[in-house]
């Protein structure tokens, strides 16, 4: 919880000399920064920045995410084997006989790697905008999360039914129920993802201020660093839930898939209990009209004036000065403002700034293409190695385990240490580093796959399904734990790129409507009431990556893994350079952009400007 500063540190809002000024407009080191509590330019440049206390409500939201992620990874971690591999000999539920567990892999539907990949990929984050729009127009974030929690729970029940021994005897029925379950859970997950991340940021309401520590040192209590810490621990909660799902691999192998799916369904029951118990304590933002829909309308009004069937001409028109003018009421004569324009010039300016912040999202589908390889393809790679009794889909849990271990190290030592040394490891630099580390993970994967091809008795012809003449698994003489390298590297890349994207999109607190991952950057740079727009675009990147992955289904086969991984490594490296080159100017303006749009104005979105003549001045 934020601590109010001593009176001597407060700016007198009635004093003309202390009138807040925007950072870029300040002409004196004594001018107070806009939306801060008595912090001047000189303070910002000379005092040490520290984080504020984190409210307990934020930790309760993290508990909700922990339980939800346990159930998510406790089911999705099993999809690859469930769909790809056949039922083990003599099994009715996918479990492996005790005598065969040193080499055998749990399986059920025997549809192969390509179909497994297509089914797992198709429904990822299906509805990134649905939850944001409903929260903004009807229910608010809290109620939207509660309703779609029930939707996800229904999907889990269907999933358990699809894996029961009786249903598995009818593979077509089992497959149909599985696809229905994935669809239902994707609707719920996409809608919740648009609201959970901003809900946790909403619980912190502090301002930038000066504070005197017990040692006598005067420091700046920084909301941006506080939000950074909140999201680091939020992401750690996500990955603790992922670690909790380690049991799923053993449950499937030893007891069958229906048991493995039932356990996370029971864990998910924690979510409604926590939400209900904390309902009176959350900072809850009611619906005030859909900022997201109004943003679309502003963009459409501007595009209508600039659109051309010639894509080059369209690009030039969009990037030309004055693109946003057709949506501004001030561009029209008095009494001639179109009825469809229900906003003011300031709202158009906020949309403009938000679109600039959301540009970071355009690069992230490539990052998630690299990340997606640890979800299924590397599990298939592991299935072709010597298991020594380790389930091949267990290794993927090294990613969340690494994050749980590394997040506190980064939050308490590495990032503060860099700040003490005067090194500005800004969000743009962190995201760039995340792309490069993800590329390194793909290089490791490509080299490993080359060795697997060379050492497998079946060469590059499906090493995961290689069997001896008597039908027994015939794995390559490579210990399965060698595949841990890419998982650990991807975990490091997530800390740099994914958590930063969470935080960038949630640092700025201009509206109760920001929604979810480049979240750190866009959340902090977009105006306050643009939060739901940013978070919806943030979730959309996962859907776009899923669509790209689905288009690559034909090359997601074992025979082509080596070239697939190498191609992703090259692409991620190129995009890292393009990303930094594109946003290096924003990197230099980091402090200034953090203060944009942090006022209390909620605007008059969805209402006629004429109904508020005071806004026309």
TrEMBL record:
<feature type="transmembrane region" description="Helical">
    <location>
        <begin position="117"/>
        <end position="135"/>
    </location>
</feature>
<feature type="transmembrane region" description="Helical">
    <location>
        <begin position="174"/>
        <end position="192"/>
    </location>
</feature>
<dbReference type="GO" id="GO:0016020">
    <property type="term" value="C:membrane"/>
</dbReference>
<comment type="similarity">
    <text>Belongs to the major facilitator superfamily. Proton-dependent oligopeptide transporter (POT/PTR) (TC 2.A.17) family.</text>
</comment>
<feature type="transmembrane region" description="Helical">
    <location>
        <begin position="563"/>
        <end position="583"/>
    </location>
</feature>
<feature type="transmembrane region" description="Helical">
    <location>
        <begin position="258"/>
        <end position="278"/>
    </location>
</feature>
<feature type="transmembrane region" description="Helical">
    <location>
        <begin position="533"/>
        <end position="557"/>
    </location>
</feature>
<feature type="transmembrane region" description="Helical">
    <location>
        <begin position="480"/>
        <end position="504"/>
    </location>
</feature>
<keyword id="KW-1133">Transmembrane helix</keyword>
<feature type="transmembrane region" description="Helical">
    <location>
        <begin position="230"/>
        <end position="252"/>
    </location>
</feature>
<dbReference type="Pfam" id="PF00854">
    <property type="entry name" value="PTR2"/>
</dbReference>
<keyword id="KW-0812">Transmembrane</keyword>
<dbReference type="InterPro" id="IPR000109">
    <property type="entry name" value="POT_fam"/>
</dbReference>
<feature type="transmembrane region" description="Helical">
    <location>
        <begin position="147"/>
        <end position="168"/>
    </location>
</feature>
<keyword id="KW-0472">Membrane</keyword>
<feature type="transmembrane region" description="Helical">
    <location>
        <begin position="428"/>
        <end position="447"/>
    </location>
</feature>
<dbReference type="InterPro" id="IPR036259">
    <property type="entry name" value="MFS_trans_sf"/>
</dbReference>
<feature type="region of interest" description="Disordered">
    <location>
        <begin position="1"/>
        <end position="35"/>
    </location>
</feature>
<dbReference type="GO" id="GO:0022857">
    <property type="term" value="F:transmembrane transporter activity"/>
</dbReference>
<protein>
    <submittedName>
        <fullName>Peptide/h+ symporter protein</fullName>
    </submittedName>
</protein>
């Amino acid at each position: 919880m934020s601590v109010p500063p001593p009176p001597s540190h407060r700016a007198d809002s009635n004093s003309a000399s202390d009138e807040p000024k925007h950072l870029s407009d300040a002409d004196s080191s004594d001018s107070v920064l806009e939306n801060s509590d008595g912090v001047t330019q000189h303070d910002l440049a000379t005092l040490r920045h520290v984080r504020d206390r984190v409210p307990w409500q934020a930790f309760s939201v993290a508990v909700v995410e922990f339980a939800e992620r346990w159930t998510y990874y406790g089911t999705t971690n099993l999809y690859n084997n469930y769909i790809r591999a056949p039922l083990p000999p003599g099994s009715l539920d996918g479990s492996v006989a005790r005598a065969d567990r040193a080499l055998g892999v749990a399986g059920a539907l025997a549809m192969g790697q390509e179909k497994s990949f297509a089914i797992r990929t198709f429904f990822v984050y299906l509805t990134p905008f649905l939850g944001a729009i409903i929260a903004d127009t009807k229910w608010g974030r809290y109620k939207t999360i509660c309703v779609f929690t029930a939707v996800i729970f229904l999907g889990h029940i269907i999933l358990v039914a699809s894996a029961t021994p009786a249903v598995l005897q009818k593979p077509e029925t089992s497959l149909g129920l599985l696809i229905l379950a994935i669809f239902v859970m994707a609707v719920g997950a996409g809608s919740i993802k648009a609201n959970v991340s901003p809900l946790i940021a909403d619980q912190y309401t502090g301002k930038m201020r000066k504070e005197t520590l017990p040692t006598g040192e005067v420091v700046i209590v920084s909301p941006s660093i506080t939000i950074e810490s909140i999201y680091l621990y939020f992401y750690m909660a996500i990955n603790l839930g992922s670690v909790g799902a380690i049991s799923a691999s053993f449950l499937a192998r030893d007891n069958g898939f229906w048991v493995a799916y039932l356990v996370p369904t029971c864990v998910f029951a924690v979510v409604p209990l926590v939400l209900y118990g904390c309902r009176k304590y959350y900072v809850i933002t009611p619906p005030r009209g859909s900022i997201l829909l109004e943003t679309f309308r502003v963009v459409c009004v501007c595009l209508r004036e600039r659109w051309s069937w010639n894509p080059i001409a369209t690009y030039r028109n969009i990037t030309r000065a004055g693109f946003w003018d057709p949506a501004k009421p001030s561009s029209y004569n008095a009494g001639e403002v179109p009825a469809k324009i229900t906003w003011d010039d300031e709202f158009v300016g906020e949309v403009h700034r938000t679109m600039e912040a959301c540009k970071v999202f355009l690069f992230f589908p490539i990052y998630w293409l690299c990340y997606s390889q640890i979800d299924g393809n590397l599990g298939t790679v592991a299935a072709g190695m010597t298991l020594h009794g380790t389930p091949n889909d267990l290794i993927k849990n090294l990613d969340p385990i690494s994050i749980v271990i590394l997040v506190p190290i980064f939050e308490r030592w590495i990032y503060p240490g860099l700040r003490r040394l005067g090194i500005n490891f800004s969000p743009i630099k962190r995201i760039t580093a995340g792309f490069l580390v993800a590329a390194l993970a793909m290089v490791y994967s490509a080299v490993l796959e080359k060795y697997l091809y060379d050492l497998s008795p079946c060469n590059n012809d499906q090493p995961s399904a290689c069997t001896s003449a008597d039908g027994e698994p015939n794995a390559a003489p490579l210990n399965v734990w060698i595949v841990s390298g890419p998982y650990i590297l991807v975990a490091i890349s997530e800390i740099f790129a994914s958590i930063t994207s969470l935080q960038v999109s949630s640092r700025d607190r201009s509206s109760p409507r920001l929604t979810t991952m480049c979240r750190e950057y866009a959340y902090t740079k977009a105006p306050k009431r643009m939060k739901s727009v940013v978070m919806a675009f943030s979730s959309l990147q996962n859907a776009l990556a899923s669509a790209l992955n689905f288009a690559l289904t034909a090359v997601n086969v074992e025979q082509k893994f080596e070239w697939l991984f190498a191609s992703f490594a090259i692409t991620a490296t190129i995009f890292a350079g393009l990303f930094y080159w594109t946003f290096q100017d924003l990197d230099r303006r980091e402090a200034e952009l953090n203060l944009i749009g942090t006022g209390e104005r909620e605007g008059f979105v969805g209402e006629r400007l004429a109904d508020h003549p005071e806004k026309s001045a």
